[in-house]
Amino acid sequence: MAGTLTGHTKPTKVKKLQQSQKRKRSDVDVEKLAQAVQELDLQGQEFKSFTDLPLSDPTKAGLKASHFTTLTDIQAKAIPLALKGADILGAAKTGSGKTLAFVIPVLENLYRSQCVGQDAGLGAMIISPTRELAIQIFEVLYNVGKKGHLFAAGLIIGGKSLSEERDALVRMNIVVCTPGRILQHLSQTVGFNVDNLQMLVLDEADRILDMGFQRDLDAIIDYLPTQRQTLLFSATQTKKVSDLARLSLQDPEYVAVHEAAESATPKSLQQNYVVCPLSEKLDTLWSFIQSSKKSKIIVFLSSGKQVRFVYESFRHMQPGIPLLHLHGRQKQTARLDITSKFSAAKNSCLFATDVAARGLDFPAVDWVVQVDCPEDTDTYIHRVGRTARYERKGRAVLFLDPSEEEGMLKRLEAKKVPIERINIRQKKQQSIKNQLQNMCFKDPQLKYLGQKAFVSYVKSIHIMKDKEIFQLNKLPLEDYAGSLGLPGAPRIKFMKGDNAKELKNAPRQHLSSSEDEGSEDEESKSKKKDKEQVRTKYDRMFERTNQDVLSGHYSKLIQHEFSGDEDEKEDAASKADQGSDSDDDLMTVKRVIPAAEGAPDEAVGTDALDADGKKIVSLPGAKDPLLIDSKRREKLLKSKKKLLKFKGNGQKLVFDDEGNAHELYELEDEEDFRKNGAAEDQRQRFLEEERERIEQADVADKALAKEKRLAKKIKRKERAKADPESDDEEDGGVELGSGQDQQQAFDDFAKFLDETRASDVESEEAQEPPQKKRPKKWFEDDSEDDEAPKHKKKKGGKKGKAVEEPETFEDLEALAAGMLNE
Ligand code: ADP
Ligand code: MG
Questions:
Q1: Which residues contact 489 (CB under 8 A, 6 or more apart)?
Q2: Helix, strand, or coil here: 614?
Q3: Which uninterrupted H or E stretch holds 199?
Q4: What is the pLDDT of residues 566-589, one digit of tens each?
Q5: Atom of ligand 1 nearest to the CA of 359
Q6: Is the C-beta atom of 71 inside 6 A of ligand 1?
Q7: Which domains does the chain possess?
Q8: pLDDT tens-digit profile of 35-75?
Q9: Which of 227, 278, 314, 611 has its CA at a distance of 20 to 30 angstroms from the CA of residue 294?
Q10: What atom in ligand 1 is closest to the CA of residue 361?
Q11: Can you give the C-alpha Rg of the chain in angstroms?
């Protein structure tokens, strides 16, 4: 039965291996294992390595192939408990190996209960707050499970059609998912049966339990059987009784390995902050990047709009380091592309929203820079947790406006976050304000992005809960707008009672807000009033661009905007998503109104006066001119939409080579038509011809696609060759970012900032040991790991499946859905 499991969207293939033999063996296996688990002595026994645990052979093999040998603290405590079936609240610092702490029990517990095959139904559900994290968990699951487990596993995170997901879902034994999307299936997918669900896992549990996901999660829980094991993991764990009650946990074990630790963040993480007025944050960021070109950096900003603006403007200024950007409004494919690029990069700077704050395990990140102050300490802890993972070193720097300093420091101290102030060396500080102004001046689209960034930043501050830190009235907003290259601060109206978390995660359909119509028009009006002072030629030119091409568009757009762009709720909002602008190319606007007809007055023809002195307006395309004889009519002129009624229908014409207009379809002379044979014959002929044409085009398309695939493969191989460093490790571990580079990076920064503790620089000189234990990601080169390719080849040969090593996450899924089988 298990052998008939198939790939995600692949047709069924019967596994040739005789199952009965295997079944008998695993039955014996299972009994022994069950007994060993029962005999586990949680008090007396100490667990150091994975071999100390009663694990199934496939899991052991998977762990070995991924080079995991010693248990981390959280793993040593949580896995034995979870194997015994306890509900667990697991808390451990970022980067301490929580993923394996739940992945292993999931595989093991389902294995022992033989929850395999389509009839067994869904045995475990693992929920993640973001798609990227879900994919990463799935990779870990795949790597540990691929050496012989027979489960079908899959990802349900949206970005695919519901029906495609549905087909795969009904076969799955383990699903990794985001809340919105899985809820959609629970409520809509016929045949998706969760009655046998044995395990529910929430990674980043506090995030999933907070307000943003409240409704979804409650609804999901309603579908699940109450008799189940529930595992919750996070670096900032919830202990709220109400949360635990919601999940109907049964005497949960609270496993917190770092509670007594001095700090809530990893020891190997050095944390600093600089005090820097909001209006100088971009200058400081630019200077920082200039001094750290050899590093791998993540820069956190508060909204997707900020990310886009900073990315786009910095890119134009050629910073000398590859830039990337990640936020929730990007297409799924783009997001995947970016995360894998950043993972593989040695030196790169990623601008991101909090969509990247939680859980993501990018290898060898040197720096986490927080340009915008995080909304709370938990967010801070998760953001900095993207570096200094699993025994590596890392550094984090937080930019604080003077008004934010006191409040934020108090909060950080209360949560045991050790952070020290450092100063910016003024000599090294470069100002990019003029450059930005120049760029915004030349490029209205960039300026438009800047305006959006400004608006979303201000709104994000406005909806922050912690008013001791976020005080809008204390921020130098005019200067801030100037620092973005804008000629003045756009005006914004606010709605009362906004709530950050709720807004941040609200499905987009509900987001049209009444709050912020006032933008450009009010801006220019208000400027006229209070800006009687000196106005330069440039100011006037700026205002002029404001009023034509994009102004109407801009104000319309910001009506639909909300500040938080952490976009986990995408699933629920995926419909709304389809229409939203693709961020593949950053500068796209939804609809461009050509300058010539930008303002309604320009769209209508020249005015004339009739005999009574009333205005007559000729509309392009309309038969009769429009008589403006009342206030209402006058008003009409302001609305393009309403004017449509008077314009009549347009007509599509085609032009021949001489430039003569023809109607789109011109009727043939009837006699000529008859000459060509009977109508039905002609129709058949036409169909035949078209079919042939399409077939030919198809062949060409396929050839092209093949070529592209081949080129990609060759490139990948070349890259692997050109980058032998990651290959020469004997144990197969990879080390991204050589020690030297990192050293260089640290040195550079040491030059840039006045270190308050000189000794730190020295201590960094001690090169850190190469990171050995990290398993390879599927997008990393696997060539020297001879076990993996063999395994894949074998599989390919046996089952005639043409999947090579997983190249995209679809490949990975396809492999895993058949999955974890061998
Ligand atoms: P967390 O979820 O606690 O933030 P992860 O599970 O993402 O941490 O693990 C962080 C890193 O540590 C990953 O790169 C992972 O491969 C590595 N890791 C986890 N457990 C072990 C282990 N037992 N031995 C070696 N490396 C490990
Ligand atoms: Mg994690």
A1: 454, 477, 478, 480, 481
A2: coil
A3: strand 199-203
A4: 343 433 333 333 333 333 322 233
A5: 4
A6: yes
A7: 24-256 (3.40.50.300), 269-462 (3.40.50.300), 496-508+545-591 (no CATH), 606-641 (no CATH)
A8: 999 998 888 888 999 999 999 999 999 999 999 999 999 99
A9: 278
A10: 7
A11: 30
